[in-house]
Amino acid sequence: MNVAFIGLGIMGRPMALNLHKAGHTVFVHGRRPESMAPLAQAGCTACASAAEAADQADVTFIMVSDTKDVEQVLFSEGGVAHGAKPGSVVVDMSTISPTATRRYAIDLQARGIDMLDAPVSGGDVGAINATLSIMVGGKPEVFERVKPLFEAMGKNIVLVGDNGAGQVAKACNQIVVAVTIEAVAEALTFARKNGVDAGKVRDALMGGFAGSRILEVHGKRMLDNNYQPGFKTKLHQKDMNIVMETAKELGLALPTAALVMQHMNALMGTGDAELDSAAVMKVVERISGVER
Amino acid sequence: MNVAFIGLGIMGRPMALNLHKAGHTVFVHGRRPESMAPLAQAGCTACASAAEAADQADVTFIMVSDTKDVEQVLFSEGGVAHGAKPGSVVVDMSTISPTATRRYAIDLQARGIDMLDAPVSGGDVGAINATLSIMVGGKPEVFERVKPLFEAMGKNIVLVGDNGAGQVAKACNQIVVAVTIEAVAEALTFARKNGVDAGKVRDALMGGFAGSRILEVHGKRMLDNNYQPGFKTKLHQKDMNIVMETAKELGLALPTAALVMQHMNALMGTGDAELDSAAVMKVVERISGVER
């Protein structure tokens, strides 16, 4: 199939490469010309604009940073909407606002273009190994058309619902991960402040109802005081900002999610933006002056 | 071995019975005489006081409701401390204050009696099936002496540290469970308020970093709007109260644990004390007027 890939950062580059390896003809565009070089070398076609890439594709993928970036890639001069043909599909794999996503889907539909939102989890390792989890929103028949392409990039691929539902699922994922990190941070700090070996507490808790991937993976980072990412705080904060803006639009209170967002804000203020978001532990420790 | 068992409620009764079944001679005492009848029938010896039971035992188990109950069972007239022989062991399996536990251990030590704290998780089903998780605090050599008795009542038996460490681990367990319940409740409410199928979101999240026993078990209860316990809100609230009192003693802030404690307080005020603590979901829904 002819596909376009817009956004060639740490995630987009290996994803585009996996589509190429799966035998598809890949037209790429990145804001920085140098981002296209390794893909052109691998056999993809570098394009001067997103429109030019989309013009040649049956399916155009977008993988950029935030809502405003997707809006620009889609609708600015030289954007996807000005190149993509009626009957083609635009798949936004960025993590952005669900409400903005629904708006974009309507705008594209008016031009005869179908849209899927398909944010991912699994990080750069998942992107390289084609093991991303992909949460999809859009029409079932459009999902079925794009599914073989998703399978070249990911493993756990779920159609959650209509346009925006993929972004909603991703937002839910980020809420649960953020608040569970805080839960584990508070519990392990409680153990240490009581003079009890937090590692043994983690062991005792792993098998029971307190057990989770977060207790396992992020709990280990906390015990080791090693916040090598993983998933950077600045990115998790960006995602929680989407959650908070959407909750505000909806008139929905999310008390603990909002609280953990504040702890991520604090990390941004203490120069910890590049650390794994398990570093929320550092805020819990700092609040009460718990020493390492 | 000769053992005593004080406290024959929904947990204590099957636990005492499992010790009896394992071939030990069990002396029992319960506040309500009728609580002793089924155990006497099964072959245990009913005693008029905790002291009388403890007097005949190498190891005395206590399984009552709260800190003040343990204090009374131990030190009031007719209490365990007035019967237990020097060289014997007192094992408190109730969930109570870690700091009070350390104090009781010192008081008992002064009388030549060793103490273990050994709170459990797994509920009445775990008590009946002898599959409780047992988190133990105390001296390793005392733990080794009592271990075969623990093995008649539970499966995942961990010595976490010194006196009080078992209670600390149990408190950590209750923090993580409470806050993770809230995390899942907020995420699933976010999904529904966005018009997205919360069940599909749960499916999409199960395999990834948001995955946990709580998302699986308590998430299901939330989706079904069925809060049949499980573990009752009033008991989880009691345990969170221990957490909050201990945090206050230690000068430790636990922001999200404190917030979820408020949601449990709210459930107590709306007549939901007997529901599973996954009913924290109802508070999250009520706050923003989310209808079922």
Q: Keywords, please?
A:
N-(1-d-carboxylethyl)-l-norvaline Dehydrogenase, domain 2, homodimer, 9 strands, Rossmann fold, alpha/beta, 2 domains, 292 residues, 54% helix, elongated
Task: Describe the protein in words.
With 292 residues, the first copy, chain A, is of the alpha/beta class. Chain A folds into two domains: 2-162, Rossmann fold; 168-288, N-(1-d-carboxylethyl)-l-norvaline Dehydrogenase, domain 2. Chain A has 13 helices and nine strands. The first copy, chain A, has helices at 12-21, 33-42, 50-55, 67-75, 98-110, 123-129, 140-151, 165-193, 198-206, 213-224, 233-250, 255-269, 280-287; strands spanning 2-6, 25-29, 45-46, 59-62, 89-92, 114-117, 120-121, 132-137, 154-161. In chain A, the strands form two sheets. Chain A has a six-stranded parallel β-sheet with strand order 3-2-1-4-5-6, sandwiched between helices. Chain A has a three-stranded mixed β-sheet with strand order 7-8-9. In chain A, helix 8 packs across helix 9, helix 8 (165-193) crosses helix 10 (213-224) and helix 9 (198-206) packs antiparallel against helix 10. The first copy, chain A, is elongated, with a radius of gyration of 20 Å. Chains A and B meet through strand 9, helix 8, helix 9, helix 10 and helix 11 of A and strand 9, helix 8, helix 9, helix 10 and helix 11 of B.
Strand content of chain A: 5-15%
Q: What count of helical segments of chain A does DSSP give?
A: 13
Q: CATH H-level name of the largest domain in chain A... which superfamily?
A: NAD(P)-binding Rossmann-like Domain
Structural classification of chain A: alpha/beta
Largest sheet of chain A: 6 strands, parallel
